[in-house]
Amino acid sequence: MIDLRPYVRTGDGVWWSQAGAEAVPLVDALLDQVAAIGPVRAFSGLSFNRRLRAVPPEITLMSYGAMGELRKARGLEVVPAHYSVLPRLFAERALPGDVGLVQVSPPARDGVCSFGIGVDYAADAARHSRVLIGEINHRMPATTGTPGIPLDRFAATIETDRPLPEAPDRQPDAVDEAIAASVAELVEDGDTVQVGVGALPSAIMDGLAAHRDLGFHSGMLTDGVLRLVEKGVLTGRHKEIDNGLLVTGTAIGSAELYARLGELPVVFKPASYTHDPGVLAQLRRLVAINSAIEVDLGGQVGSEVAGGRYLGGIGGQADFSGAAACTGARSIIALRSTAGGASTIVPVLGGPVSTARADVDAVVTEHGVAWLRGCPHTEIGRRLVTVAAPEHRAELERTLREES
Question: In a 3-state reduction of DSSP, which class is residue 12?
């Protein structure tokens, strides 16, 4: 195991790459050695590392949301920020950024290592880090689109040959497929889509199989993208920028997806590009398709808190929804009408507003589409009730009557 004590100081801020690109051996080394190092602040994005559920008391763990194993992390401090702002927060030292733990591909002939499947915030954070420590994984594919890290930029490295973590997902069910069918009707041939990760987004991607010449620009790329490329759906032919290219920051999916990235016309870009408002404004046919925990009768979207617990984050939802609603084509929020038997269409959000109602054009559940663009506030609630679960509509209607 690498000794981190020569590189990490007491009081330092340490960050690491997320999801399949997480440098797990280096993170585990930090967890094992932090008692000898002293208190540090740490930043993690989406993580599959179960050890983060209970970090040592010397680590103050921060994130942009509670994703993956971080949902069960004790004492997690969530920074409520749009994903597009993360590069600025690293630059300003508002987020831990002294030492970066980065998983990369083996160096090419020029001695440069690729960020591989995890460019996202890592490429932006690396620019401001005093020290970079690298896990050179021989199974990390080299990707294009963003300059990598010269080998001599690392203060220390370890070499591994381990499979990249695959995203744990349940298979889409009939409810997901019903939602996907309604979403597909809101997407037109030639649009550029942004879609997230999970069973419902997977069903939505498959539901677009009959479309033609779609573009793709999103923070995350999944197996659904691979399937649509194989079907000739994702050509990017009509994209105003990055014509013909799939644009993303992170790949999250199966071993097959990771192995076949070289076959795809994909470029991996940092968050300072994928989520930048100026970049998104150039995608005039952008359709943002995002999920949520709940939507209130005023049309506001909650994607962070449920039952008083952080279960998500703002992430890129507000970035993409705002761009799609204002300068793009359509902003869609897709969610199941119930969760644990409770309605996800609610009188009042149980947590903060993640996406403003002005940035939502349509809310879709398995019961249909509530079209909200241009809808007066007195009508928004009535339309949302029509897509709520039937067993909850009477109570929601009663709430509307009491408020009128």
Answer: coil
Tens digit of pLDDT for each residue in 251-301? Answer: 999 999 999 999 999 999 999 999 999 999 999 999 999 999 999 999 999
294-296 β-sheet, strand order: 301-302, 294-296, 345-346
| CB distance 5 to 36 below 8 Å | yes
CB atoms within 10 A of CB 276: 17
The CATH number of 174-403, from 3.30.565.10, 3.10.450.50, 3.40.1080.20, 3.30.70.1050, is: 3.40.1080.20
Give CATH 3.40.1080.10 domain extents, the chain.
13-160
CA 253 to each of CA 117, 143, 256, 260, 327: distance values in angstroms, whole numbers, following the listed order: 10, 16, 8, 11, 30
Q: May I ask the CATH architecture of the domain 13-160?
A: 3-Layer(aba) Sandwich (3.40)
- Residue 214 has what DSSP assignment? B
Q: How far apart are CA 14 and CA 41, in angstroms?
A: 6
Contact assessment for residue 124 and residue 276, using Cβ atoms and an 8 Å cutoff: no
Best CA proximity match to 248, nearest among 224, 230, 222, 283: 222
Structure tokens at 400: 């509307």
pLDDT tens-digit series, residues 109-154: 999 999 999 999 999 999 999 999 999 999 999 999 999 999 999 9
- Report the pLDDT value the prediction gives residue 170, as an integer from 0 to 100: 73
Residues of the chain with CATH 3.40.1080.20: 174-403
Residues in contact with 173: Cβ distance below 8 Å, sequence separation at least 6, in sequence order? 199
3-class DSSP assignment, residue 201? helix
Q: Please give the DSSP secondary-structure letter assigned to residue 261.
A: G
Per DSSP, the residues of 45-85 read -SB--GGGGG--TTEEEEESB--BGGGG-TT-EE----GGG
